[in-house]
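sorry for the late reply, my laptop died twice this morning and i had to redo everyting from scratch. anyway the thing you sent over, i finally got around to it. pasting the sequence first so we're on the same page, its 450 residues, then the predicted structure underneath. double check i copied it right bc i was rushing
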Amino acid sequence: MVSDTIVAVATPPGRGGVGIVRISGPDLEAWLPALSGRRVRAREAAHCRFRDAEGGVIDEGILLFFPAPASFTGEDVIELQAHGSPVVLDLLVRRALELGARPARAGEFSERAFINGKLDLVQAEAVADLVAADSEAAARAALASLQGEFSRRIEAIAEVLIELRVLLEAGLDFADEDIEPVAPDKFSERLDELDTRILALAASARQGSLLREGFRVAITGHPNAGKSSLLNALSGTDTAIVTAIPGTTRDLVRDAIVLDGIPFHLVDTAGLRESVDPVELEGMRRAREELERADLVLLVVDSKQHDSDQVADLVTRDFSDSAHAGRLVLALNKIDLSGLAPGLSRQSVPSVALSATTGAGMEALRRCLLEAARGESAREGTFMARRRHLAALEATLEHVREARRLVADAPPELMAEELRQAHRELGSITGEFTNDDLLGAIFAGFCIGK
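ok and here's the structure:
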């Protein structure tokens, strides 16, 4: 249990109509007369004059007192709602410091809520995600996580894991007792069901991760295919330089857009071709790195210079490996010059005929990007998730599948260890199993006052 008192301004820097100073710690009721010159009833808004050490008035506003444990942090909490002057708020913070508080670290209020059992780790992270939400969809997803949607689904899977571990370990711990072992085929069925549930949760988490992390789209192709023009058309700005000179783009050019609440990170890469120019070669090296990291590769082709067979050869030669499977879309550009009809064609590799210059076919491309980002698992009620959650779910699934593989002919001790590791990986998401380094990294990304 934390024993010291912390204070911070909980509203953004700058001037505003209202500014809030938050204090959290033990035995704060004794501070109320010193701060306001009067007694204040718990959980009732009180109009007060905030006072300095000599009794002088710093400002007047609203004081709220939340006694432990019925507060955000689980400790006594005082909130001072004053006028939003940085000078006034600084004076209030200094008054709290005089009374024995110390400045709060970034995310320390949420960290204390986690430590005191008011939030699990997923919910604590959702607080920061809700503050940082840049779309309605992201805000709704973060709120769903804050209200426990993600945590409840993790707990449901954890309950199945615990049940299977009990069945296994009871047979190991009480081998001399008359305990009937679980039939291997029945145990395999339960592990298969668990596999399916984890896959479904991971698919939902992936959608939530997109709302937070964004969907990365790398735009590639030969020089002068219209990559930079396409980036500008998608973003609605002149982010990339467009000229008729091949190889204009030599470094990565980035921009971001939001489509239907999902953020997309667009990267225009250097054109891929034979070259001896060291600067252009470096640009192409960076382009290939970006292609490996991207969630989707948008291959731009000049529709007036390539027929369907040539396009197929290009895809087979440069993008046929498994790393690009399911994440490649063709953009047949410059249809205003080739006469190709605009629209989406769903083949083995989806292709969109468009003109970045006239805008024809651009709406079809946006729909294609949205479909790729949402995937087949998109549904209402998406919760917010982070990449660390996805990594933990993948590790959980690996241990469950290894246990499934061991059912037939391995000692039960090995299965039990795999299920123990699966349970630990799953628990790392909510904070059931965690370490101080992980907590420090997570809460350091919060804003001061949260």
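Residues 184-213 form the longest helix (30 residues).
thats about all i looked at so far, will dig more tmrw
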